[in-house]
């Protein structure tokens, strides 16, 4: 079992994920597109020797 004091972040990066497409209704029958972006955050933790 590892101690929390001996751990450190060796890598951290963010990748783009899919975009959800939504429609926002506007006046006079119009509709605007809304793009809701999301992402993945990856954290690699290693133990100090």
TrEMBL record:
GO terms for biological process: translation. Coiled coil: none annotated. PROSITE patterns: RIBOSOMAL_L22 (PS00464). This is 50S ribosomal protein L22. One of its GO terms (molecular function) is structural constituent of ribosome. The globular domain of the protein is located near the polypeptide exit tunnel on the outside of the subunit, while an extended beta-hairpin is found that lines the wall of the exit tunnel in the center of the 70S ribosome. This protein binds specifically to 23S rRNA; its binding is stimulated by other ribosomal proteins, e.g. L4, L17, and L20. It is important during the early stages of 50S assembly. It makes multiple contacts with different domains of the 23S rRNA in the assembled 50S subunit and ribosome. InterPro entries: Ribosomal_uL22, Ribosomal_uL22_bac/org-type, Ribosomal_uL22_CS, Ribosomal_uL22_sf. Part of the 50S ribosomal subunit. It holds the Pfam family Ribosomal_L22. Keywords: Ribonucleoprotein, Ribosomal protein, RNA-binding, rRNA-binding. GO terms for cellular component: cytosolic large ribosomal subunit. Belongs to the universal ribosomal protein uL22 family.
């Amino acid at each position: 079992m590892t101690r929390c004091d001996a751990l450190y972040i060796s890598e951290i990066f963010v990748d783009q994920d899919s975009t959800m497409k939504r429609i926002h209704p506007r006046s006079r029958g119009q509709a605007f597109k809304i793009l809701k972006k999301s992402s993945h955050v990856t954290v690699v933790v290693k133990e100090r020797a």
